[in-house]
Write a structure and sequence with these properties.
Length: 532
């Protein structure tokens, strides 16, 4: 009985853990590695045909995004998840596949002119559709047999509609071990969804640590703060641009905006328009407006019982076509535009930033985590200008960060959650966090008398003997986007050349101004070509 860590080990994305019981292998999540976490272009670390079944904690792409690749490469077993996660997977995997195909098409258009061989998408929409046919859904609290010696039950993780903590009972050679996989634990007092459930009695716990080193700021009245910002921006004739994740965060925002409308909190322009410019968000909103029995918190139930819709109101427009999207910026009326992606690295949001960032009367409001290296992070860190579609755009708009608006449990809530697991587990594996954060949180658990460590990529742990049998490896953070993964020979060569360039610059002191200017222009030109 072994547990191997193939993702989110000293990393925030790419959750993927492999449980081996009675000679059969089961995955808990199979997510895409994103940003600097990515290595080896998201290739699988194991033969897909060796996997018996997959347990999916929730629909976010960093937990589910490699499922179509798994199916493409030969997996044909069950994918077990909750009912609403299954519904959200149906749109998120198809959308991810569309992005994979579009990215490959774009690379091939550029590559053909440069004489490069064509690239294949990681997977296609057909692969995603085939994957969805393998999905089996159950409700919270329903205990099911997944395979020989493996039983599973989902509990509410309070992170996203349908998100779950997976309880797994593994039995081998007459010995049963209970494992808890936290998935992503939610924040408390979020609208619509319930708080995370507390669990007990586990031999092993695999838990996230995204905010393992910090607490969220004391919660403010989101409706009051957002209404004030809208008022101030509209008074100046500007737009409020909100980069938002299409599933979960967008619906949460609509919930708040409905309250703002109902209470008349925006005085400048009370009939203001809200435009959700994301076909994925629109489809997700329809799921959020469907059958939510067993998934809602008490306040949301009261709203529904009062006859109101949680996410729709007068003045809301769900934008579908690209022509409708472009028209939003042609219309000079002040409005709120909610668009994906949430970190501004892709999608329609980049067009809205291009048209609004340079306008001092506008505001850009961040309502979610911005990963290191993302455009969103650069804006929050005070970038004076950014390049969008080959054009340098000055940052004059007001940049606002709603720090308290997070769907992840913070440090204190993570501690409270693991403290409920009694008696003390044999080992807690701290995953899904930046390396230093995971390490510090594991150390804090140890100091509190809870055995814990932050496993490295490819670590193998024997659950019957309670010991590591194969140490993992440290993956270097990815420094470039696309192409070979971090640590590849090509990347190492690039690093060496960069050191040579740095040495050349050092040796150039004392040369003529003309030569120095020429060298600087050549370097700048090369950088601009690679950044486009």
């Amino acid at each position: 009985m072994k547990l191997t860590f193939f993702g989110a080990a000293h990393a925030v994305t790419g959750s993927c853990h492999c449980l081996e019981v009675c000679g059969r292998k089961y995955l808990i999540d199979c997510g895409l590695q994103q940003g600097r976490d990515e290595h080896d272009d998201n290739a699988l670390d194991f033969p897909a045909g060796d996997i018996e079944a997959v347990i999916v904690t929730h629909a976010h792409i960093d937990h589910s995004g490699r499922l179509p690749l798994l199916a493409k490469e030969g997996f044909s077993g069950q994918i077990l998840t909750t009912r609403l996660t299954g519904q959200l997977l149906s749109i998120m995997l198809r959308d991810s596949a569309f992005i994979q195909e579009s990215d490959a098409q774009w690379q091939n258009q550029k590559g053909k002119r440069a004489g490069r061989p064509p690239v294949e998408p990681l997977y296609t929409v057909d692969d995603a559709q085939a994957t969805l046919e393998l999905v089996r859904t159950v409700e919270y609290g329903q205990k099911v047999i997944l395979g020989e010696g493996v039983e599973v039950r989902f509990r509410d993780a309070g992170h996203l509609l349908g998100s779950s903590v997976a309880e797994v009972w593994a039995t081998e050679d007459g010995v049963t071990k209970k494992l808890i996989f936290s998935g992503d634990l939610g924040n408390v007092d979020q609208p619509v969804i319930r708080d995370p459930e507390f669990l007990d009695e586990a031999d092993y716990v695999v838990m996230e640590s995204t905010y393992g080193d910090r607490n969220h700021e004391p919660p403010e009245s989101y409706t009051q703060a957002l209404a004030q910002l809208i008022d101030e921006t509209f008074a100046k004739g500007g737009n409020v641009i909100i980069p938002s994740f299409a599933v979960g965060r967008t619906q949460e925002l609509l919930y708040f905006l409905r309250e703002i409308k109902d209470e008349g909190l925006v005085k400048t322009f009370p009939s203001f328009q809200v435009c959700v410019d994301s076909p994925l968000a629109a489809e997700a909103t329809r799921i959020y407006s469907g059958d939510l029995r067993g998934y809602l918190d008490e306040e949301a139930i009261e709203v529904l019982q009062g006859g109101d819709n949680l996410f729709t109101f007068q003045g809301l427009t769900l934008v579908q076509s690209s022509e409708e999207s472009k028209a939003l910026n042609a219309d000079k009326t002040s409005k709120i535009i909610i668009s994906a992606s949430g970190m501004c690295d892709a999608g329609r949001i980049r067009h809205h930033l291009k048209h609004n960032l340079w306008r001092p009367e506008c505001a850009v409001v961040f309502v979610g985590y911005q990963a290191e290296g993302s455009l969103g992070r650069r804006l929050l860190e005070g970038a004076k200008s950014v390049k969008l579609f080959g054009e340098e755009i000055a940052v004059k708009a007001r940049i606002v960060n709603f720090k308290g608006l997070s769907s992840h449990a913070d440090h204190d809530h993570l501690l409270a959650w693991i403290d409920h697991v009694k008696p003390t587990p044999q080992q807690v594996f701290v995953v899904h966090g930046d390396g230093p954060v995971s390490e510090s949180f594991a150390q804090e658990l140890n100091q509190a008398g809870i055995p814990a460590h932050a496993p490295l990529y490819r670590e193998i742990y024997d659950l019957l003997s309670n010991q590591m049998v194969e140490q993992g490896v440290v993956l270097e953070p990815k420094r470039v986007t696309g192409g070979a993964g971090a640590g590849s020979p090509a990347y190492v060569h690039l690093q060496e050349v960069s050191k040579q360039l740095e040495a050349l610059v050092g040796r150039s002191r004392g040369r003529s101004n003309k030569d120095l200017a020429k060298l600087a222009d050549q370097i700048r030109l090369l950088m601009e070509q690679w950044e486009e």
